[in-house]
Design brief:
Helix content: over 70%
Number of strands: 2
Shape: globular
Structural class: mainly alpha
Strand order of the largest sheet: 1-2
Largest sheet: 2 strands, antiparallel
Strand content: under 5%
Length: about 350
């Protein structure tokens, strides 16, 4: 005899299936959602500034929300433009120097590894002439295949560039309308939650919001302190590119491992290009080693705080999962995703410990 389902159970199963299909559709459209996800993250971060400006009163003039949104968005992109003006000259300065140093580096590498490779029976020249000869042989043996691969990659690269340009154009537009309609949109989302779960859902959303707000405030302070530290330390060590490299290292700390790794690579390149001995490399090792100690043992525990409960494993999992789903924007989604995962896991664990399944 089949188990009789009530009307309420049938409706629950139907709406659960609808939401699962909706989530599957979102996962399928991951690349299309990239500008909307990026704009949503920026809107969440910028909305407090819009609210403060929106509530200001200048004598008899009240700042309307569209004007507040426009001012905040313009200030944000002006700050990004200023940062780009600092970073781009560094790359324009270091890349030609690196290209000029590559032949000398290959000569030293050939002097170090050439005899050992010959002992192993490998006759390979690692200087620029040897690499040119190797490339000439490869081009003569499989020229058609190489050129077809180059053309195919050029077509793919052109499509990717157009996609990035479309994303960069869409993000400010979507960001403006999200900030303009932020509070009504949140009210509509809360109104779509089933009434039996609305209290618990809003409580969890407020918990996640408090967690993220506290984390973001502490992380911003950590970024500013580290940017000042790396800039001043590299400047005292005599680096010509101390200011931009220090700013890049500090401001990209919010992406785990990327900010520190990119800053370390740029600083090592600058050390190799600027200093003739090992003093620059040793200075970079000391500066960045001390920076990691300061960040891990002093800044993060005091300014961010372990009491927030953002487990590093949850952050790593969110980085991998959302990076797989949404690309680079998924990496930016790792912070809110890890906060939501931690809050959801805490509530799930609480329900599990109270359930009859556990206590029976």
């Amino acid at each position: 005899m089949p188990f009789p389902f009530t009307v309420e159970q049938k409706q629950t199963a139907f709406w659960v299936a609808v939401w699962l299909a909706f989530l599957l559709l979102l996962m399928t459209l991951g690349s299309v959602l990239t500008p909307f996800l990026a704009a949503a993250i920026l809107a969440y971060a910028l909305n407090p500034g819009v609210d403060r400006l929106d509530h200001l009163h200048f004598r008899r003039f009240d700042v309307p929300r569209p004007l507040a949104v426009l001012v905040v968005v313009l200030l944000f992109f002006l700050a990004l433009g200023a940062l780009a003006l600092i970073v781009i000259p560094v790359l324009q300065k270091e890349i030609p120097l690196l290209q000029a140093q590559i032949p000398l580096f290959l000569v030293k590498l050939n002097e170090m590894l050439g005899p050992k490779l010959q002992e192993l029976g490998l006759k390979v020249q690692l200087d620029s002439a040897g690499i040119k000869t190797m490339l000439t042989r490869q081009m003569s043996s499989g020229g058609e295949e190489i050129w077809s691969a180059v053309l195919a990659s050029a077509r793919v690269g052109g499509t990717a560039v157009l996609g990035w340009l479309a994303t960069l154009v869409l993000i400010p537009v979507v960001l403006f309308y999200l900030l303009l309609d932020w509070h009504p949109m949140l009210a509509r989302i809360a109104g779509a939650v089933p009434r039996r779960w609305v209290g618990q859902t809003i409580a969890m959303a407020n918990e996640v919001d408090a967690l993220l707000a506290q984390y973001l405030r502490g992380q911003l302070l950590v970024m500013l302190v580290l940017a000042v530290y790396y800039s001043v330390a590299l400047m005292l060590a005599g680096f010509d590119v101390a200011l931009p490299v220090g700013i890049i290292t500090g401001l990209l700390v919010f992406i785990p491992y990327l900010g520190f790794g990119l800053g370390l690579v740029l600083a090592l390149i600058a050390a190799v290009l600027q200093f003739s001995d090992w003093s620059g490399v040793v200075a970079v090792a000391v500066i960045y080693g001390c920076g990691q100690i300061i960040e891990g043992f002093f800044l993060t525990p005091r300014l961010v705080g372990e009491r927030i409960g953002l487990n590093p494993l949850a952050v790593i999992f969110a980085l991998l999962a959302f990076g797989q789903l949404f690309g680079f924007v998924g990496v930016l989604l790792a912070l809110p995703a890890s906060a939501i995962l931690m809050v959801a896991f805490k509530h799930l664990r609480r329900h599990y410990l109270r359930s009859s399944f556990y206590n029976a």
